[in-house]
Amino acid sequence: MKVILLKNVPKVGNALDVKDVKPGYARNFLIPEGLVEIATDAAIAQIEERRAKAAVANEAALAEATEHIKALDGKSVTLSEKANEKGHLFAGIHHNEIVEAIKKQLSIDLLPEHILLEEPIKETGEHAVEIGNGNVKATLTLSVTKAE
Which of 2, 22, 87, 129, by CA, is between 20 and 30 Å from 47? Predict the structure, then answer.
């Protein structure tokens, strides 16, 4: 039975894929759970249209993210965190905290996956943080100070 996946289904496929599944699996599980719809000619045409719109939206989002990353090159952001007298932070600084600081201080929206940190920042001082999306990369200076 040909079906169109409405959501990602493990071991079957991703959303908007047209797949062949066993009729019993489709009738007893996939359709009642709202994971698929039966693949008619009209439904397949509609899915192709949705894929085309999604591709255009993804391209626009990628172009916007690229502009934001280029705008961040050479900029600096300051965070104030609790630390001991040796400069070790009590809690590491992760992707989300950096994204929030960039949004608050520079008014630029980024996704956490654009921040290329190998491990959380755990020391006060200045850190070079790489930001990237595909082959576009920028370096941001993150100044971490001890909160009073």
Answer: 22
